[in-house]
Design a protein that fits this description.
The structure holds three protein chains of three kinds.
Chain A (H helix, E strand, L loop, with lengths): L2 E2 L2 E2 H32 L6 H19 L3 H22 L9 H23 L15 E3 L4 E3 H23 L1 H11 L1 H6 L4 H23 L11 H14 L4 H21 L7 H12 L10
Antiparallel strand pairs in A: 1-2, 3-4
Helix pairs in contact in A: 1-5, 1-8, 1-9, 1-10, 2-3, 2-4, 2-8, 3-8, 5-6, 9-10, 9-11
Chain B lengths: L1 H15 L5 H9 L2 E7 L10 H19 L3 E7 L4 H13 L5 E4 L3 H14 L2 E4 L16 E3 L4 H14 L4 E7 L2 H16 L3 E8 L8 H9 L4 E5 L2 H13 L2 H4 L1 E4 L4 H7 L1 H4 L3 E4 L7 H10 L10 H20 L1 H6 L1 H10 L2 E3 L3 E3 L11 E6 L12 E7 L1 H4 L14
Parallel strand pairs in B: 1-2, 1-3, 3-4, 4-5, 6-7, 6-8, 8-9
Antiparallel strand pairs in B: 10-13, 11-12, 13-14
Helix pairs in contact in B: 3-14, 4-5, 6-7, 9-11
Chain C lengths: L5 H16 L6 H23 L8 H17 L4 H23 L4 H21 L16 E2 L3 E2 L3 H23 L2 H11 L1 H6 L4 H27 L9 H14 L6 H16 L6 H15 L3 H9 L5
Antiparallel strand pairs in C: 1-2
Helix pairs in contact in C: 2-6, 2-9, 2-10, 2-11, 3-4, 3-5, 3-9, 4-9, 6-9, 7-9, 10-11, 10-13
Classes of the chains: A mainly alpha, B alpha/beta, C mainly alpha.
């Protein structure tokens, strides 16, 4: 058996793969944050709460209407995205001209309210959500026993991340979005309804969080705190990748998942802290993050 | 000496200042006895304690105090699992609000933090929610009774049964804080004493860990026969979900060292089926526990009582009986005297049957090892457990001499 | 003498009067909690309000001050004065190290690097043996001040805490109105210009940061003494978040705002504890309301309405 740093090779490969799977969640969540920050200049602290809402909506759809996992994967993001549109129109749009701090504070308050309401309605122990039958079971990869559902998570995350990236970087819609960020009045003058574009962008970012929430429902417990457990790491991912950088948040999300996975083998107690160590190093060396534009 | 002088000073200050102390204090004086339920009402342990604990305490008041014409008020607060907030609430309860008895207080660090305040103010402290066996060991107090369960009893019941069934080598998945470490060490001692071995442990950051897959794969690689979950609440639920997902339960036995019926409800039977766990109360144990549950379940339909809730009922009931026996004025004056009277009086109620309270403050509730039913075996709402082993209270807990409690005369 | 304007003198006298009268009306232990939080928020406001840098890691200084005071009281049996002073010095020393790393960043990046550094401190406190992990350092004696003032009485302790708060408050005010403070404001308004005038702006910011951290450490140490406990909550990032909220609710960049904010936030925490599961919903609602309706904070809005500087 090959040994790497005193750890059997197969075990290490397994850990790398698991890290990558966790990274898929980081990537999806930080992607939404990056899109929202890039277009709206809002640090959306409520992202974790909206991720949690995605999982809860999937559970409610199943419990109340008998709608299964795959339809929920489309429906829940739409519902939560619509909720995001309402939020943007009624509350968040009032903050665009203000300091980042106010956006952060408002969305923080918002996440407290959302999580509190769900806790009142559903308690904090969590609710069961089954893995769909077709994705049950596991595959033996030789070096480890890989649950099929986790494979599906990575696949779905990769598809979603790179389509988002492609839409923003390679299509004319994306070009309009980017132009609106750079110079809104000019784009408005070309006949584009910029406020509507901004609203829909927020809705899309929120929908991404909800999509990740539905993906997470079968493996993590569906409970009101599930988002706040993620949110710190996800913020770190966005900062390390470079605020507002789409590609940066995807690459960093997967990368940090792997680094965290390795830490779990060598020094598990530090696995929640290693992200911040990376962040300090990156910010000292490259103040704008790995993929951030120069000031 | 200093203690009494301080309380006199506080009392003097308080009486000099009653003018602006508003209707709240006036209201407090109208009730003969005031009970304060302090627990987590918005965080991860909301369902294991929370509002249902308050409901169960009030149930005891309604059944006993009302019949005896004793006027009792129950108030509650959320300690958010912060020791410093808890200390500040408890001080205010004792100094300003006239609380006589402190109840529940889950989360071991918080439970330990308020211990010294209760002693300083000479009040009564009945803990149902916290797990640490240190509360009746080196940290024991003459103002304190640990009512429902502790880490030693869980380790002995669940761990002991696993070792007996051939689970001789263990790998622990441990929440990296006081409670998790205590549960791991209590269980390790027991496993080793029974001739077993500990293959390793992963201590993961608490709170904030949601993904356990990496630790589970390490556990599997250790080739141990049993994976011991030294964690609680949402972490236990998450780790069991992922144990199922990775098929670890096919090669290893799972010991959920602290798990409540409320957690099983959250997991769902298809995932939880076959797990072994220990509680000192289950609603469907016998006619009396069913009768008790029938009386409270309509008040808390989404969250049926677990052992912590039952402990809140039982502790309140016994406290009120003692207060009635010795007189409310006496009981309010001296917490130590009330506690020793409680220890001397026989305890009996619908939830735990007859129990005795040891001099170190340990209430000797029975320990039941349960197995979670398969979905096909469950016949109704909350029908989750079958009883496997019943350990009577006298044998369930750490022997008196091993705790090093200063109240125990050698 | 402290550079107060006339309305500020009046406000200051009102505040002192309230501090003197309130322990006879309200519960003194609660008031001490408010005063510690107020000193912490004032120290934080020195950075955010007058230097324009948002630190998201101030819990590190507050918490380390709290641990050091608790440890030296409990195990070295120091005089309360020295224990509190050591708490403050620890905050300042840690501030010097972390500030040196962070001070060249600005805006959101400064916030993020201070958050990350504070997380390192949190991890250290979680794993280091002397902090007692999750249990913290408990049963810390209040001891004596200057060897002869017994602090175990709540009222005596209250006057000491009040004196510490007022001392810190006046010190901050004095700093702001000194020539040094004028340079800080100049940097906040236009850093390149301050640089071109020959000021080494990073040094000025670092000194302000160290002062702010030292006072935060003092606030933490005082709190540890009052409650006899130092725990992980004190170094947790939620404490960093709370002080940001406190300052904003009271009024960012105002002299009296942070103290007012501390009163509001602590009252919420204290009286809402009875509201059970609704606590977070109400808190969140109030924060949202603050951002949407009175962004200048309570004192800031009053000042704006009466056209005063408070």
């Amino acid at each position: 058996m090959i040994m790497i740093f005193g750890i059997p090779g197969p075990l290490l490969f397994g850990q790398l793969l698991l890290g990558l799977i966790n990274g898929a969640f980081y990537a999806m969540l930080s992607l939404g944050l990056a899109v929202i920050f890039g277009m709206l200049n809002i640090i959306n602290f409520a992202h974790g709460a909206l991720f949690m809402m995605g999982a809860f909506v999937a559970w409610i759809l199943l419990d109340a209407l008998g709608i299964g996992y795959f339809p929920s994967l489309i429906l829940a993001p739409l519902i939560v995205g619509a909720f995001g549109v309402v939020l943007e129109r009624t509350i968040i749009s009032r903050l665009y001209k203000l300091d980042h701090l106010y956006g952060l504070l408002l969305t923080f308050g918002l996440s407290l309210v959302i999580e509190g309401l769900f806790r009142n309605a559903y308690g904090s122990s969590g609710l069961p959500y089954r893995i769909p039958d077709i994705l049950q079971g596991a595959t033996n990869l030789g070096f480890m026993y890989m649950p099929n559902y986790r494979g599906w998570v990575v696949l779905a995350a990769l598809v979603v991340c790179f389509s988002t990236w492609a839409i923003i970087e390679k299509t004319s819609l994306g070009a309009t979005l980017r132009a609106a960020t750079e110079n809104a009045p000019l784009v408005q003058a070309f006949g584009v309804n910029v406020p509507r574009v901004v609203t829909l962008t927020y809705g899309a970012g929120v929908a991404l969080a909800a999509f990740a929430g539905v993906l997470a429902a079968p493996i993590y417990s569906v409970n009101p705190n599930m988002g706040s457990n993620f949110i710190n790491t996800v913020f770190a991912v966005v900062v390390i990748g470079g605020m507002g950088s789409i590609l940066g948040s995807i690459v960093t999300g997967f990368g940090l998942g792997v680094i965290e996975g390795l830490t779990k083998v060598f020094y598990p107690q530090a696995s929640a802290t290693v992200v911040f160590l990376v962040m300090i190093i990156v910010l000292l060396a490259r103040p704008r993050g790995l993929f951030g534009k120069a000031a | 000496m200093t203690l009494s002088r301080r309380s006199i000073l506080t009392a003097a200050a308080a009486s000099a200042l009653t003018v602006p102390a508003l209707p709240r204090l006036a209201h407090a004086q109208s009730a003969a006895i005031k009970i304060g339920v302090l627990n987590d009402q918005s965080g991860p342990y909301t369902n294991t304690g929370g509002a249902t604990s308050v409901i169960c305490a009030k149930q005891a008041v309604q059944e006993f105090a009302t019949a005896q014409g004793l006027s009792v008020e129950v108030i509650s607060a959320d300690h958010q699992n912060k020791p410093d907030l808890a200390v500040s609430i408890v001080r205010q309860w004792f100094d300003r609000d006239g609380v006589d008895m402190l109840l529940d207080v889950p989360t071991s660090s918080v439970a330990l933090a308020v211990q010294s305040v209760v002693r300083e103010k000479n009040k009564v402290y009945l803990n149902s929610g916290a797990a640490s066996s240190a509360l009746t060991g080196e940290q024991c107090s003459p103002n304190f009774i640990h009512w429902t369960y502790d880490t030693f009893m869980l380790a002995k019941s669940t761990g002991g049964a696993m070792v007996k069934a051939g689970g001789t080598s263990w790998y622990f998945l441990t929440a990296d804080y006081a409670f998790g470490k205590q549960l791991q060490s209590d269980t390790s001692d027991l496993v080793k004493a029974a001739g077993g071995t500990v293959a390793g442990a992963s201590q993961y950051p608490f709170p904030g860990t949601t993904d356990f897959s990496s630790f589970l794969v390490q556990a599997q690689a250790s080739k141990a026969k049993v994976i011991g979950l030294a964690n609680a609440g949402g972490d236990t639920v998450n780790s069991i979900k992922q144990i199922n997902e990775f098929g670890i339960n096919k090669t290893m036995k799972v010991a959920a060292l602290l798990m409540f019926v409320t957690d099983v409800h959250a997991l769902g039977l298809d995932v939880a089926a076959g797990l072994n766990l220990t509680e000192s109360f289950y609603w469907d144990l016998n006619d009396k526990t069913r009768a008790f549950t029938n009386r409270v379940k309509d008040k808390t339909p989404k969250n049926w009582p677990n052992m912590v809730h039952a402990g809140c009922y039982s502790a309140t009931l016994h406290y009120l009986k003692t207060v009635h026996d010795m007189g409310a004025a006496e009981a309010k004056k001296d917490g130590v005297a009330t506690i020793s009277r409680m220890k001397a009086m026989p305890v009996e109620d619908d939830c735990f049957g007859k129990t005795t309270i040891r001099e170190d403050g340990r209430n000797l509730t029975p320990a039941y090892l349960f197995e979670v039913k398969k979905p096909s075996e469950s016949k109704g709402p909350w029908d989750y457990f079958k009883q496997v082993v019943h350990t009577p209270g006298e044998a369930a807990y750490r022997p008196l001499a091993d705790g090093h409690c200063s109240l125990v005369k050698a | 003498m402290f550079g107060f304007s006339r309305p500020q003198w009046i406000a200051f006298l009102v505040m002192v009067a309230l501090i003197v009268v309130s322990p006879f009306v309200l519960y003194p232990v609660f008031l001490m909690r408010v005063l510690c939080a107020a000193l912490f928020a004032c120290a934080f406001n020195l950075m955010l309000g007058y230097v324009g840098l948002l630190s998201f890691g101030h819990a590190a200084f507050f918490g380390m001050g709290s641990y050091v005071t608790a440890w030296t009281m409990k195990f070295w049996h120091l005089d309360a004065f020295f224990a509190m002073a050591l708490g403050g010095l620890t905050g300042a020393a840690l501030g010097l190290v972390l500030g040196y790393l962070a001070i060249r960043r600005s805006g959101i990046y400064f916030a993020m690097i201070t958050l990350a550094l504070a997380q390192m401190v949190y991890f250290f406190c979680l794993e280091a043996p002397f902090t007692g992990g999750e249990d913290g350092i408990q049963q810390v004696p209040r001891g004596h001040l200057f060897g002869f003032i017994d602090l175990s009485n709540d009222m005596t302790m209250y006057w000491v805490v009040a004196a510490v708060f007022l001392g810190g408050f006046l010190m901050i005010h004095r700093i702001i109105h000194s020539p040094f403070g004028q340079v800080l404001k100049g940097i906040r308004e236009n850093e390149p210009r301050a640089t071109s005038l020959g000021y080494r702006t990073d040094d000025y910011k670092l000194i302000a940061f160290v002062l702010s951290c030292g006072l935060s450490g003092l606030a933490g140490g005082t709190k540890a003494l009052v409650f006899g406990i130092a725990t992980l909550t004190d170094v947790h990032y939620s404490t960093s978040g709370e002080v940001v909220l406190t300052t904003l609710l009271g009024g960012l960049g105002t002299v009296f705002g942070p103290a007012m904010g501390a009163l509001i936030v602590m009252s919420m925490e204290n009286y809402l504890a009875q509201a059970g599961a609704w606590v977070t919903v109400i808190q969140g609602g109030i924060f949202m309301l603050c951002v949407l309706a009175f962004r200048r904070g309570v004192i800031g809005e009053i000042a704006n309405w009466r056209k005063l500087t408070l």
